Amino acid sequence: MEFTEISAPEFDLAMTLDSGQTFHWLAADEGFVGTIGETPIYIEQRGDQLRFAGGDEQLIRHYFALDHPLAKICASFPDDAAMSEARAFCRGLRIMRQPHWECLASFITSSMKQVAHIRQMSQALRRNFGERKEIAGREVFTFPAAARIAQCSEAELRRCALGYRAKNLLATARLAASGEAHLAAWSVLGDSGLRERLCALPGVGAKVANCVMLFAYERLSAFPIDVWIARVLRERYFPRRRKMTERQMRTFSDSYFGAHGGYAQQYLFHHARKTTARTVKRSRPRKTANEKQPRLSEVGS
DNA sequence: CTCCAGGGATGAT
DNA sequence: ATCATCCATGGA
Q1: Strand B contact at CB of residue A15, distance < 7 A
Q2: Would you say residue A301 has pLDDT above 60?
Q3: Alpha-carbon gap, residue A57 to A203, rounded angstroms
Q4: Gap between the Cα atoms of A275 and A146, Å rounded
């Protein structure tokens, strides 16, 4: 195996891959295996050094955005308690540059799903419809192109545990495959124009559009508001307010977090998700078993 | 078992 | 314009 070694200061590979922006990298040996576009990659980190196989330096630097001026970006965050905690916790976390379609498709499937399950759906789509590759003695699968998904039936996609999301993924895949939705060409659009195009796609609303803008189009001010971020805004920024509407959160975040709001958002998201006590609710008194609901008679699978 | 998850589309106020 | 409901699935 041919390895290349490069310097990558101010970067935390494991945290970046675990921060809920990409969903397919798997732990392998001392590092991870996955794909960057069609290229299978093995990559590991030792201190400030990255060792990788399967791609070239330019591909790695671009995908992991090693050129982003992370210190300056972090210094641009607003100076408040929640942001300072997140910034300290997320040192080395970078916003990657993902392929347009792969990112869009992944976030269409993300609706009302935990990160762990989005990973599961991504793997299922790859294994069933992607191209098999080998790297570091392991098999990896590329994310299926829009044209390949467009050939699938809704039932095939549902077999990847997509549920109601299958219909949206299929419809958007057809638009992308036909060229009616030309994702690459949209790179030249301004933020509002790009957001408008994305939101016109089936299964894409403001939240998914902002994720795709941030993670695939390098729009670093895009600020996705999911249930975690909404909770952070309510609890850390407006603890007195009785209720905050989507509109109020949007107005605040767009004006408060600045030109790199997307980075700030990702730091707040990752910090909240990794530190919020996930303790099972305190021994809630349980109903005794004699009130058990009558079960439907067993149905065949 | 219950609760919840990187929401969106639709129809009713 | 805001609000309620439904949509599937599996981890915790």
Answers
A1: no
A2: no
A3: 35
A4: 36
